[in-house]
Amino acid sequence: MHAGTDLGKQVLQAGDGWASSGTGTTGGSAATTEHVVRDAEELRAALAAPAPRIIKVRGVIDLRADCSTYAADGYTLAGYLAAYDPAVWGRDTEVSGPLEDARAASARRQAAAIALNVGSDTTLVGDGRGAGITGANVRVHGVQNVIIRNLTFRDTRDCFPQWDPTDGSEGNWNSDYDAVSLQRATNVWVDHNTFTDQPHPDSESPTYFGRPYQQHDGSLDMTSGTDLVTASYNLFEDHGKTMLIGSSNTSTTDPGKLRVSIHHNVFRNVEERLPRVRFGQVHVYNNLYEPGPSFVYAWGVGVKSALYVENNYVKLSGGGAVEDLIYNWGGTAITEVGTVVDGRPTDVLDAFNAANPTAQLAGDAGWTPTLNKGLEKAVRVKDLKAGAMQRERYHVAKGTDFDTVQTAIDAAPPGTTITIGKGVYREVIRVPRTKPDLLLKGSTGTARDVVIDYDNANGTKKPDGTTYGTTGSATATIEADGFTARDLTFSNSFDRAAHPEITSTQAVAVKATGDRQYYDRVRFIGHQDTLYADTRAAGTRARQYYRGGEIVGDVDFIFGRATAVFDQMTIRALDRGSDPNGYITAASTRRDNPHGFLIMNSTIVSDAPAGTYYLGRPWHPGGDPDAIASVVIRDTKLPAAVKTAPWTDMSGFSWRDARFAEHRNSGPGATAGADRPQLTSEHASQHTRRAYLGDWNPA
């Protein structure tokens, strides 16, 4: 696939898998006009137009909405959890009653909102790079001759998973909605698409009743008598139950159908069903498998299945063992030939049978594929590239690629530059750790022109009645390594005076947890807890560099356990009209980390009265004795607002046990005294940008 090629007119070539048999698969190529669609309304209208139809998706169409908009009959997750807690309901009976009825009604509302029904003789393609559909359930049901290509399908998320305490020994959460669902469909070609659960993968979901809260079903499922399908050059990543072929063990519609070819796909950081097959003759060849740490199995051999697995390449460095590649779901045989695992030809079936003496499989599935165009040796697909064409640059502003910053982040592959137009963007954003090396930059070169703002506080109530907490209050949560922001403002505009009913007023503008994060000419605006410079977990480290920007706040407004350098920054300490007026830092550096916060070559400014501000206090989250704050302020101008004894205790922990120091500061607030530890020149040499950032040079 090449940019500039008219995908709408292309048809499946002869011999390219099962979808080339019968009448072949031509989609809507015979159409004399095409529909170019940019939003859900236009897409639905195009899908309803007379066939044959060519539909080109331009940009990303996002069907998602806040889950609360679908809730019906008083459904809340908190209420559902309380009603069906195994301690109350037990584990022997399926759930029923008003809350389950409300959940089902809510699910029906979501299903109606996210369904996209594709008719016969349709080609649905992405128009150039970066096209996709987010949050949708694309249904190819009861139709024939369909082509789907060059689209990124993201986050088809079930807002209302059902708890089934009888599913397995411990119960399970079950979700609906496949990204693409094939039922009673014939002659379908699914090619060069990307399927991902990002930005909300189930791996990051909470656990309820001791079981993962699963919100995603299949990526590409083929059931209910579907037949003659080719899935080629797709990328499946960050997903659990990926590809199911066959409805149930007792299906009366699947026998004799479910003839599917799966070739030249990449399965990356996925768990299972790659694919799982019942009944069908399924040829799985020349795919690249890169399973992640939660890998379960690849090839599921189900009832009366005839899996022919040929010349696939597997990389197991991320997780799993050779014998785990096969799972017996009640089948009798699988043909497995030509597999290469980590560079070595491997008899996977032999390894499976040796490890599973009570679930043996024979080595002949009873047929030999002939529609195998492009079949090659496994080593040729070691570095296979697959998936939809992606862009390297995106633009955010009304009338451009994206209207919101988050939709651009969701669409962007790692390493993308996202340019944000002038304006105020009222939204909460998250850059997940699976999006490394993103660059977010303002279009004008002036941070004040481009503002990302929201106003949640710790005590602000969510729709379900719970509160956000400090972490959840963040306007921006930046988890990815290698992230850069430039010429932007991140703001939390929570107004204490307007909300006297909220007493927990921590309101974070940015929570940063990734390593090698660079904030260049960026402003952070807030009051309490403005900038949360942290790490992913207590035992991890993260280096962050803040240069040439501004941080505004009053209480603990630079806090966390990151190794963070603040260079040439303006730090503005607000006047609350009290004494103390506030605390600039509240570090929680781990005991074994010699480098916490380094403020250097900067200017601290304040309109607060003289002697009313502390430089910092030691934060011990949850009373953690191993959080020993480390803050060094050097070569920085201090205002008169800074107290002559500028460090103070916090929550019963003495500042004297922390690692606080100054060096060569200036200004009216830089006085000398017994309670102002100073670094010697020798010690100062250990507190430089290079010492803190190590082998990373953000410049």
TrEMBL record:
CC terms in the record's Gene Ontology section: cell outer membrane; extracellular region
Stretches for region Disordered: 663-699
Pfam families documented for this protein: Pectate_lyase_4 (PF00544), Pectinesterase (PF01095)
Positions annotated as active site in the UniProt record: D556
Chief location bin: secreted
Single GO molecular function: pectinesterase activity
Pectate lyase domain: residues covered: 71-320
Enzyme Commission number(s): 4.2.2.2
Subcellular location: Secreted
Single GO BP term: polysaccharide catabolic process
Keyword terms, alphabetized: Aspartyl esterase, Carbohydrate metabolism, Hydrolase, Lyase, Polysaccharide degradation, Secreted
SMART domains associated with the record: Amb_all
Domain of life: Bacteria
Entry similarity comment: Belongs to the pectinesterase family. Belongs to the polysaccharide lyase 1 family.
Name used for this protein in its record: Pectate lyase
